Amino acid sequence: MKNQLESIRRSAEATAMLQKLEYSLARIIDKLLPGAAVKPIRDTWRQWRGNPELTVARQLCDRSRLALDIGANSGCFTHDLARYSAGCEAFEPNPILVSLLEESCQGQAVRIHCCALSDRQQQTELVIPTFEGNDYLALATIEP
Questions:
Q1: Phi, psi (5° rounding) for residue 50?
Q2: Are 88 and 66 in contact (CB under 8 A)?
Q3: Would you give the end-to-end CA distance of the chain in angstroms?
Q4: pTM score, two decimals?
């Protein structure tokens, strides 16, 4: 049992280090390339290294039912959800990301909704954090 816990701890540490490296590389790529060029690079990277969350999502899909992608962002999950389900309803409140989604999902069974989902019905503002002049679209929130 102790060896298993140690193995899990080492694996978690390695995963955290890899995520920090990926974050640093993503920041460099974001600074060097225009936004439209970044998505294919990230998608290729995820395909090469694999994305455990995508593997689980594929296994949960049912070809006879629609999938929901809430907070679709740039569509990393949207494409697979549409491929392994009857279709995908993608919800993304950021109009910049919605336009990227519309472009990349053409010809797929995907309907894109430019709105945020919440437990309350109200108008709110989408806040996109900025650091050193860079917008971090993936960290946008409607929470105060």
A1: 85, 150
A2: yes
A3: 43
A4: 0.63
DSSP state of 7: H
Q: What is the pLDDT of residues 34-67, one digit of tens each?
A: 666 777 777 777 666 667 777 788 888 999 999 9
- Token pair, residue 63, equals 């070809």
In this structure, what token pair is assigned to residue 133? 């002049």
Could you write out the DSSP letters of every residue in 18-41? HHHHHHHHHHHHHHHS-HHHHHHH
pLDDT tens by residue, 85-140: 999 999 999 998 899 899 989 999 999 999 999 888 888 888 888 888 888 877 88
- How many CB atoms are closer than 10 A to CB 71? 15
Q: For residue 64, what are its two tokens? A: 């006879």
